[in-house]
Design goal:
Layout lengths: L5 E3 L3 H22 L3 H24 L13 H12 L11 H23 L17 H36 L4 H6 L1 E3 L16 H21 L2
Helix pairs in contact: 1-2, 2-4, 2-7, 4-5
Organism: Hyphomonas adhaerens MHS-3
Keywords: Cell membrane, Membrane, Transmembrane, Transmembrane helix
InterPro entries: Cyt_b561_bac/Ni-Hgenase, Di-haem_cyt_TM, Hydrogenase_cytochrome
Length: 225
């Protein structure tokens, strides 16, 4: 559109988190399927740090990265889905209500997946998570069973997430992948007041989030012995 500009919607740290998560979930699946358990545990430890980073960044990161920007109240959800049913879709500055629900579900599933993996023990007691020595064998086996189930749930949620992306692309002509790569969207999609006021990464806030991620990984490794 003539005269329109592309404005920043997603900061670099959030985008790096997103694509790192894609690669790590794929690596987590591949290492488990092929019995490469040393690398499976390493992948899990990186995920501990990555999730910790995201939760801290959700508190101190840029506007659209913060949990406080999520609109998931009943009125927002009902209004959004009502508009979709009528064929109306207006791009959101940040996550739309449906996308927010998807993000929450995937983050919860990942936390369950990583958390149970830390305590999981295989049936022979030969392979175990870094914190398995803190629980009984029976509890470790329960964690392993939940770990397996939660991964299937995670895959289903990812499938729904991808289906939604395809739906938005073909039915509403809204490419959700490109902004998560470039960070930018056409300003004509939004209201005049929509702008990422803190678009420049604060190196202090970034350092805090990275320090929290490293501290979480260090704690797990040291508690696990």
């Amino acid at each position: 559109m003539a005269g329109s500009q592309r404005i920043l919607v997603w900061d670099g740290a959030l985008r790096l988190f997103h694509w790192s998560l894609v690669l790590l979930v794929a690596a987590m699946w591949w290492t488990a399927e092929n019995g490469v358990m040393d690398w499976h545990r390493r992948t899990g430890m990186i995920l501990v740090g990555l999730l910790t980073f995201r939760f801290v960044w959700g508190l101190i990161g840029s506007q659209t990265a913060r949990f406080g920007s999520w609109r998931i109240g009943p009125s927002a959800l009902l209004g959004y889905f009502k508009a979709l049913r009528s064929g109306v879709h207006k791009p959101s500055f940040g996550h739309n209500p449906a996308g927010t629900l998807s993000v929450i579900a995937i983050l919860v599933a990942l936390c369950v997946q990583v958390g149970t993996g830390l305590f999981a023990v295989d049936v022979d007691g030969l392979e175990s998570g870094p914190l398995a020595r803190l629980v009984s064998f029976e509890a470790g086996r329960q964690a392993a069973e939940i770990h397996e189930i939660s991964f299937n749930i995670l895959l289903a949620l990812i499938g729904l997430h991808l289906a939604a992306i395809v739906t938005y692309l073909f039915f509403f002509k809204d490419n959700l992948v490109r902004p998560m790569v470039t960070g930018r969207r056409d300003s004509a999609d939004f209201s005049a007041g929509d702008t990422l006021s803190d678009s420049k990464l604060s190196w202090v806030r970034l350092a805090i989030a990275l320090a929290a991620a490293l501290a979480a990984m260090w704690a797990v490794l040291n508690i696990g012995g």
